[in-house]
Every structure is written in C-alpha cells, then in structure tokens.
Specification:
This protein is mostly beta strands and about 210 residues long. The protein contains 4 helices and 14 strands.
C-alpha cells in the first residue's frame, strides 16, 4: 500500500508555497521511492557520500530504453539536484538524460547507488531493485500553474507498458510511458495506481490529500 508523506523544503524549488507530497512504500509489495531530494535542514546529518558513477551500468541500459539512446551532453543543469542527493546516490550529471514532456523538462540521472528523477517541483530517487521492479513514482499536489491539479511523474522500466491511475471522483486515467517516463496532471487526487506489464493489481494510495 502506498502512503504519502509531506515534504518540507520544496517551496523554494517550486516557486510556490503549495504542499508537496510523495508516494512511498507502505509495504513490501510496492517499492517506488527511497528518498526525497529536498534541501536538508541544517541540524540534519547528511548520509555518507557514495562514489560518483563513472559510466552507465549495463543493468540500466538493459531495463531502460532511455539509457540505450545517445546521451544529450550537458543536458542536466547543476541546479536540478541538491548536493545531498548527488552525494548520497553518487550521481553523475554528465550521464543524465533530459526529456521534454509537454511544456516540462524531466531530468533522469544515474548514480552508483541508484537513479534520481527531477520533475521541477519534486525530486525522487530509487535503488536498483526498486527501479527494475516498478520504477520511481512522485506525486505533487497543487501543481504550479495547474490550479489544484495533482502532478504525477514516473520513471518506469521497459516492462511497464502503462500506468492506470484511479481518481477520487471515480474516474481513471491511463498513461503510457514515453522513453520510460510518465508526466500527467489529474484534476482530482489519485487514489490507486496499477503498473501494467509488471502487475495487474491496483496499489492504493493513502491520504490522497489536496490543496
């Protein structure tokens, strides 16, 4: 079961005081996200730095078409990821990818300890095990410029062919990945998610929240 927790420190990144929420694993069956790359508070001790990834690993190229294509050099700006996330996951921005999704740019950067996805208002990271099973999923309530819409951003492996998103009003949104990425906005809060291709069961999202 998915649960959503409040993220602090993202208002400056989003340019708004709107609340940010991220889906995290509540049980062993769903493992989308391990960390939120929000700016740490001064009193919080930073985790040990991981070695910087030197080249894209074979498992990542095998599981994600995004990393089998030509790398667009210099595509990932330094400001896209905090120093803490770069250090914790051993990210190498030079190996990152930039993908335009509508009017938004998503950045995906591999590291020695996992991969991070930056969608502008929210950043999430996952380990190898999480990435190859389901991928990374991040939700953002009150998406800037979209009224009270919820932004849904995901990085999914090749095996996932579609995300089925159940909404609080009873509706459903189907989103097919483009180069392993999904970026959609829903007018009402999502309540459950199904990863087609790797699962046929919907995983509930607790505390759908709102603006």
């Amino acid at each position: 079961m998915l649960k959503k927790i409040m993220i602090t420190g993202l208002a400056a990144l989003a340019g708004t005081a709107a609340a940010a929420t991220l889906a995290v694993a509540g049980g062993t069956s769903v493992t989308q996200v391990t960390t939120v790359a929000a700016k740490p508070s001064p009193e919080r001790q930073a985790p040990p730095a991981a070695p910087t990834l030197s080249r894209t690993p074979a498992w990542l190229r095998e599981s994600f078409a995004l990393f089998r294509g030509t790398r667009n050099r210099g595509a990932v700006p330094v400001r896209a990821f905090t120093r803490s996330s770069v250090a914790q996951f051993g990210l190498n921005l030079r190996l990152g990818r930039r993908v335009a999704m509508g009017d938004r740019a998503l950045y995906v950067v591999p590291g020695s300890k996992g991969v991070c996805l930056d969608a502008g208002p929210v950043t999430a990271c996952g380990t190898r095990g999480q990435l190859t099973r389901r991928g990374i999923l991040a939700l953002y309530s009150c998406l800037p410029g979209s009224g009270d819409a919820t932004g849904i951003f995901a990085l999914v492996p090749d095996a996932v062919t579609r995300l089925d998103i159940a909404l609080a009003d009873g509706g459903t949104v189907e989103a097919a990945p483009t180069r392993n990425l999904v970026a959609v906005a829903t007018a009402t809060a999502p309540t459950a998610m199904t990863w087609r291709g790797t699962s046929t069961a919907a995983e509930p999202i607790d505390d759908a929240g709102g603006c």
